[in-house]
Write a sequence for this structure.
DNA sequence: ACAATCAATTAGGTATACCTAATAAAAAAA
DNA sequence: TTTTTTTATTAGGTATACCTAATTGATTGT
């Protein structure tokens, strides 16, 4: 049984990501996320289980310690790649996701170290998500969605949970990027928009959008 | 018929490299270089031919214009990757080949441009080999092996045709790297060693080794 | 010229990762 | 509770890229 490492990495990474919303990840959700058919995923999950990378129970799939470790390595490589792309190669934050998805599988442990060193051991990716350290230790700050803030509350953007380039461009155009301070001036009722003030300018922001911006 | 692009790139790159010594490349030579069995290569070559990437004659395989173009793109990405690794990530020249072999298949046209721009459009890889431009134009200088020089001749190293890390480390330790000036002090008869002078120091250099160092 | 050698292909078979269609099992709605 | 719907798996099948063993074809040596 020969392993197709990139494929395995892809699965582990997806499971890792989905676990954050839904603990044991369902086959269907995973299939949807990977854009594969449910039976394909069902089959592959069996293989991952036989390699002791996941536990497959009635309720769904979850990563074993080993699988979690591997997933975090991939996440680390993904986020380091993104930083390499923005900080050194001059990419914009909305252009890096897809590139990093390809790069992450071509990066050796040595290259991982070198990138981290050359970038001064960055703690987050360009979207503000933490980069796990070499041992898979990941420090996540306590955050809440911007959409939960009340009128007159002020906060600092920690990260932006969004991959769509168009949306990222839009957010960048408003200055809604990590480490920026935001003041909520007004919150419309019935799930209406927020009026926010970002570095001197005032904008109306939809709830949907605001819920993807995490602040502290 | 779905294409496994990295695999195809690997084949084209090998054919491209081997063509420089042996014009129509033989199946067996290709198989040896790719570390695959002859029948596997035979079969794959048929597929490449059906995609009009190679011409398959009795004497062997050669790249079509289309195949040549694709091969040069891969070579460009390989050599740009090597430069990225040395110039930005601090790798040594003996450490980059294998890494670049993985990276070259994960680089998009856009990333190719960005790397080139960030590095100031380098003309060669760390071993002195020319980097084809975007259109596949490759300017190769007229060179000859260091081993062909006569006593008292002086030359400048253009490139080093070698991939083995140990050998590259050795050459670097003697200062035998691109752009360095070398004076041949003496040439032993019957294929014996050359006595060369490199930046003030004198070394004995085997013929075999010297033949891999190209000078102008 | 003929046998020996070497190169290339054909034949037949493996593993991986995917698919659709059909079925079984579990959860939600009536 | 029974039906409907959703979710997961089995069954069966495809394509790709590899393999070994056997065969054909070309080259070389005597």
């Amino acid at each position: 049984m020969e392993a197709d490492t990139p494929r395995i990495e892809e699965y582990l990474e997806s499971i890792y990501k989905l676990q954050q919303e839904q603990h044991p990840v369902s086959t269907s959700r995973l299939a949807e996320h990977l854009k594969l058919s449910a039976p394909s995923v069902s089959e592959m999950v069996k293989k991952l289980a036989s390699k002791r990378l996941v536990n497959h129970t009635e309720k769904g799939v979850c990563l074993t310690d080993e699988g979690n470790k591997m997933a975090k390595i991939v996440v680390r490589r993904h986020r380091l790649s993104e930083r390499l792309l923005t900080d050194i190669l001059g990419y914009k934050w909305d252009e890096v996701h897809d590139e990093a998805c390809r790069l992450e599988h071509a990066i050796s442990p040595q290259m991982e170290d070198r990138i981290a060193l050359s970038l001064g051991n960055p703690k987050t990716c360009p979207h503000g998500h933490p980069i796990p350290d070499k041992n898979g230790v990941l420090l996540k700050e306590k955050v809440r969605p911007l959409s939960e803030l009340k009128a007159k509350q002020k906060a600092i953007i920690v990260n932006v949970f969004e991959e769509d380039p168009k949306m990222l461009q839009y957010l960048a155009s408003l200055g809604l990027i990590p480490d920026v301070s935001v003041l909520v001036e007004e919150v419309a009722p019935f799930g209406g928009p927020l009026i926010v003030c970002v570095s001197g300018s005032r904008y109306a922001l939809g709830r949907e959008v605001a819920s993807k911006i995490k602040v502290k």
In short: Residues 111 and 117 of chain B are 10 Å apart (CA to CA).
